[in-house]
Amino acid sequence: MAGKVLIVDDVSTNRLVLKAKLSRSCYETLQAGDGTTALALARAEQPGLILLDMMLPDLDGVAVCRRLRADPATRDIPVIVVTALDDAESRRRALRAGADDFLTKPVDELMLLARMRNLLRARQTESELGQRIPADTAGGFAEPEAAFEGAGPRGRIALVARDRAAGVAWRAALARHLQHDFEICSPSEALNARDGADAPQLFVIDADIDRPGGGLQLMSELRARAGTRHAALCIVLDPGARDTGITALDQGASELLPRDFEPREAALRIATQLRRKLRADRLREALRDELRFAVTDPLTGLHNRRHAIPQLARIAQQARRTGQRYAIMLLDLDRFKEVNDRWGHGAGDAVLMEVAARLRDAMRPSDMLARIGGEEFLVAMPGVDLGAARLAAERLRQVVEARPFALPADAGSVCVTLSVGLVVEDGSDAQDGIGGIDRADRALRAAKSEGRNQVTVGLCAA
After folding, report:
1. Computed over its alpha carbons, how large is the radius of gyration of the chain?
2. What average pLDDT is seen over the chain?
3. Structural fold of domain 305-457
4. How many CA atoms lie within 13 A of 398 on its CB side?
5. Which CATH class is domain 145-288?
6. CB 181 within 8 A of CB 154
7. Which one of 3.60.110.10, 3.30.1380.20, 3.40.140.10, 3.40.50.2300 gives the CATH number of domain 1-131?
8. Does the active-site annotation cover 425?
9. Active-site position among 255, 265, 375, 425
10. Is this prediction's pTM over 0.85?
11. Are the C-beta atoms of 353 and 300 separated by less than 8 Å?
C-alpha cells in the first residue's frame, strides 16, 4: 500500500511526532521501537515506505537496512533514515547499506513529505511496470542486485554546470569514486542529447544554470523528450535553497545534491540513482518484449491472429476512405500432417519456419503476413486489384513449390505445396475484413477440393 508508512524509532515521542506530521497528509502509519519488530512488520505489512532511525536498542539502522535489502520481500521498499546523527560517515554508512535518503532531526516537514512523494512515485512506477510482466517472465528480477557499496554497471553521466570550470571540478570530484563516463555539456547540448544506447543515463544539473530556476526548466524539458524522459536527474542546490529543492522533487528530480557536496556521499547517491534507472529500463524492456511476444508467433516470427485482425480492420478502413481495393488471402500447406507423421514435429517446425521466410521475402513491405493456425497463413495486400492480387497469390504459391525443404538432422528434404483462397475487397465489409476472411476461407476450401496446389478466387462482398 503506497500510503502506508512504517516509522521505526526507539523513542515513542519521536514516533508520535512523525505520525502527527504524516497524518496531516493522510498517510497511514505503523510503528516499531526496535529493529527486529521493524523487519517483521516490513515483511508482513509491506509498507510503501520506511522512516528509520539509526540508533535502535537491538540493531542499528545500518543493520536493519542491510537485512531489508537482503530479503526479496522487502528489498524494494524505499527507506529514509531519519536520525539525530549528522556526520558524513553516518550518512555514507546508511547509503552504502541501501538507504534511499538520509535526513537529520529535527526534520523539515515539507522537505520530508517531498522526499517521500518522490520515492513513492518512483516505487509505484516500478511496481506498475513489474505487474504488467507475467510472473514466469519476470523471474530474473527476483535475483539479488549488485551490492549497494558498488557503483554497478558503467554508465554515462552528463554534467550541466554554470560554467565549464564548475563542470570540470564536479567531474574531478566524482570520477575518483565512480567508474562511469562523464561528459560536460551546456543546456542546449543536454537537450540535444543522443537517443538510444548512447544517451546519458544520468544528468547532474545546476538548479541555477543561467538564471534562478533555469536548471528546473531544463529538467522539465529533458522529461518531455523521448531520449531523456527516463534519465535520472540530480539537481545541485545552493545552501538554504529549500523551496527550490522541494519544487525540484515534485517536478521529477531524482535526487538533490548540495553545491558543496561531499564527493563520496554524492557518488553513493548517484550510484543508487543509476541502479534504479537500470532496473526500470530492464522492466520497460521486458514489458516491450512481452507486448511484442503477445502479437508474434514464436515459431516463425510472423505476426499472429491477435495482431492480424486489428491490422486487417485498419486496411479495410483505409480502403473505405480512399476507394482503393485490397486483397485477402488464406494460405494452407497441403497434406502437412504427413510431414509431421513421417518425419516428426521437429521437421514440421523446420518446414513452417522456411515457408514463413519464403513468403515474407516474396511480399511487399506494405503487405501483412501472419500465421493464424497450425499451417495456415493470412495475407492482406492493400491497394491491389484482382489482376495484381492473383499474380501475387501465384507468386506465393510458386515460392513454396519451387524447391524442396531441407529437414533437420540430415534427414533429407521434402516437397511441400500450398493452396490459396483469394478475395479482393472494396472496403464495404461492415465487419472490417472479417467477412473477407470467411469468403477467402470458402475459396481455400474450394482450392483444396479441386486438387490443391492452386489459387482459387472467391466472391467479394456483395
Report:
1. 31
2. 90
3. Alpha-Beta Plaits (3.30.70)
4. 8
5. alpha beta
6. yes
7. 3.40.50.2300
8. no
9. 375
10. no
11. yes
